[in-house]
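Batch manifest line 463
LIGAND: zinc ion
JOB: complex structure
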Amino acid sequence: MSVLIKGGRIITATGRYTADVFAEGDKIKAIGSDLDYPADEIVDASGKYILPGAIDPHTHISMPFMGTHAQDDYETGTIAAACGGITTVVDFDLQQKGESLLEAIERKKSWAEGKTVVDYSLHPAVMDPRPEVIAEVKQAILDYGTPSFKIFMVYDFRVDDATMIKLLEETKRYGGLVQVHAENVYIIQHMNEVLEKEGKLTPYYHSLSRPNIAEEEAIARAAKMVELTGSRIYIVHLSSKEGLFKVKEARDNGIDVFAETCPQYLLLNEDRYNEPDFQGAKYVMSPPLRTRESSDALWTGLKGGDLQVVSTDHCPFDFNGKKDMFGKDDYKKIPNGAPGIETLLMLMHTEGVVKGKISLERMVDVLSTGTARMFGLKDKGEIAVGKDADIVVFDPEQKFTITQDKLHMNVDYTPYEGMEMTGMPHSVYSRGKKVAEWRDDHVEFVGKVGSGRFVKREPFEGF
Ligand code: DUC
Ligand code: ZN
Ligand code: ZN
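JOB STATUS: finished
ARTIFACT:
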């Protein structure tokens, strides 16, 4: 299988230029002017961008959570990814009680077997940190190619600071990265009690129960553990201005604290929790949506490099029957999470690039090149000879109104319903095979279920 993409504008993290791209088998084989290779498919890409496929390093495929489970499995989730221009997914793999980390990796790989349509990897999440589990970090990094490990500072399955320290030391030894869901559990527990006593239990109070300072404090504490150990940490789904300040402060002091944010924190604000007919429940996620002030700060952080990655935290639960049932009388019971894997690239282009908040090059960096670098995906994230042919031919003029029935995620709503997009994937290639293309009024999946592969990632060598 080969494809010759003619005359597109290639976008890298540092610049743009017009050239042809030839891909054969899995790889980009040549880039240059007037390439004349025989190819199975020739694409006229004049007027289009050639982007590296986006990488989503934060998804919860089929995750059991709050008495239910996230609804996309590896088939529906990666089909939605492909249609949105995402060609690699790094999914969280939550270790169960009594399970080893390596068993957790094998278990989740077995769920993905034969189902993924784009490439994927896993971040094991340490939830049962027995000494022998910490000792598995070495093998997970060196043998299994999963060098990033998630921990939660909140929820019943949180880890304590001592465990965080041990993990930071072990990942430092072997070139890993600890990813942290940073919220102070005691602040949240206290706020929950206060709000409960006052009978404040509608979705809006979810946001008040998890104030910015809960994130700020947890990030500051995690940063101290990094300072102690000389390791590295990556804050997932950063949501607040105060949290961002702590990330920046740490790095200004030479402490390696990195962070991602997500489109929901850039684009949606806490007034959404007041939508009528309980629809505020659609936005119940943790951390919660914040004020405009935080969103503005996050855009600035993204532009200036204080934030390195944009992910989705894709964690879909139906509104009807899940969001609107479990927590009707108490926000604490509403399954936390929202869908987003399919809308990542279109939102970042329309709301970020077209509106002048970030450059096209910065978009490529935070969705692909920088993400690949952060997570050891050495063959991904760039339009360059020798890299995997994960390519989005992107039409920057194509209009699209986001609406649930034109999307592929296995869920009954999108938080972005009705938003007008400018710029959509024209065609998407995963290791040289076309997996999605624009048809009439939306992007359609055209690939083969099972064509995605597990990708072994590289450890970090800079310690
Ligand atoms: N937050 C969510 O909103 N969903 C999944 C897990 C999480 O931390
Ligand atoms: Zn989280
Ligand atoms: Zn998450």
